[in-house]
Amino acid sequence: MSGLVTAAVTVAAVAFGGGGDGDDGTSDTEHSRTVGAGEQHVVPSPDAGQRELLLDDLEAIGSGLVADEDQAVEDARWICVDIRREQPEDEVRGVVLQRFRVTWEQTGSVLDAIRGTFC
After folding, report:
1. DSSP 8-class letter at 20
2. Which of 12, 47, 59, 102 is 20 to 30 A from 71, comparing alpha carbons?
3. Which stretches does the entry tag as region Disordered (predicted)?
4. Is this model's pTM higher than 0.85 or not?
5. Contact 35/43 with Cβ under 8 angstroms?
6. Which residues of 95-110 are buried (b: 16+ CB within 10 A; e: fewer)?
């Protein structure tokens, strides 16, 4: 099933302008992805400095949160989509619980780290 989701995201990214070369010679998908059918949702991606700040902030919350740095950043990117789509705070915190495996109290700090760095 996850293969279908990956394929759908790839098709959506290409269909909505993702995957082309950016002005700096990198592909658009290296910076962000576009997902969604009728409505575009860009999955933001932190630049190198924002990434380091995010990882530092997450590590301050709990060292286990950045054991897999790439996964931590990927999870933060998708949580940012929920934030930008103005999902209810409790729902976003629930996603933080699942993705980062933190306590309910820590979800607020994780959200602050995401919002304060690139989202």
Report:
1. S
2. 12
3. 15-45
4. no
5. yes
6. bbeebbebeeebbebb
Instruction: Compute the distance between CA of residue 43 and CA of residue 58 in angstroms, rounded to an integer.
Output: 19
DSSP 22: P
Residue at token pair 């990927």: 74
Q: Which residues pair with 27 in a beta bridge?
A: 21
H or E stretch at 35:
strand 33-35
Q: What is the pLDDT of residue 63?
A: 83
Rg (CA), the chain: 15
CA distance 110 to 100: 9
Q: Are 55 and 66 in contact (CB under 8 A)?
A: yes
Where residue 22 falls (left for φ over 0; alpha for ψ -120 to 50; beta otherwise) is beta
